[in-house]
Write a structure and sequence with these properties.
single chain, 158 residues, mainly alpha, Four Helix Bundle (Hemerythrin (Met), subunit A), 6 helices
Length: 158
């Protein structure tokens, strides 16, 4: 099993990888729909929303509080991206970076028994599982999407 420290380090590194790609993205293309139905700005709004959910749910598990389970991920994604549509690029970037820093902070300080604590009797999810899912989401979906689009737009190998 991957150690807790290693998971936090991996999330931090993978976030930095995506940040480096995002910073290379042409400014004039950041708010253009290039990823199915989303722009790069929308993608960051989406990632911000899930970072916040991971923090909120992990803190609830840690503190033995109930939370609302998200059953319709598509609806959640649409709502959260739409909610941030009017935000500036800089505001989205600040919120995304801050949310990722909060993920790192919460998981660094998470007591060991909470890492594998189920979030309720009807769910098998745990904070460890959430962090692993986010790492995979960044690594397997969004980093390749942004890297490929950046290569397409700039013609540069990354």
């Amino acid at each position: 099993m991957t150690s807790e420290r290693e998971l936090v380090r991996t999330f931090s590194e993978i976030h930095k990888q995506l940040l480096e790609l995002v910073n290379q993205f042409p400014e004039e293309r950041r708010e253009v729909i290039l990823f199915d139905k989303w722009s790069l700005k929308d993608m960051l709004a989406h990632l911000t929303a899930w970072n916040r959910v991971d923090v909120e749910h992990t803190e609830c598990v840690r503190d033995e509080k109930d939370f609302e389970w998200i059953s319709d991920w598509d609806k959640f994604n649409d709502r959260e991206v739409t909610r941030r549509k009017q935000m500036s690029w800089n505001a989205i970037m600040e919120e995304w970076i801050s949310s990722a820093n909060r993920v790192v902070s919460v998981f660094q300080d998470l007591p060991l028994p909470v890492w594998d604590k189920r979030c309720g009797p009807e769910h098998k999810a745990t904070p460890r599982g959430w962090l692993k899912a986010e790492i995979g989401h960044y690594r397997d979906e969004h980093i390749p999407q942004v890297a490929n689009k950046l290569k397409e737009l700039t013609g540069r190998e990354l």
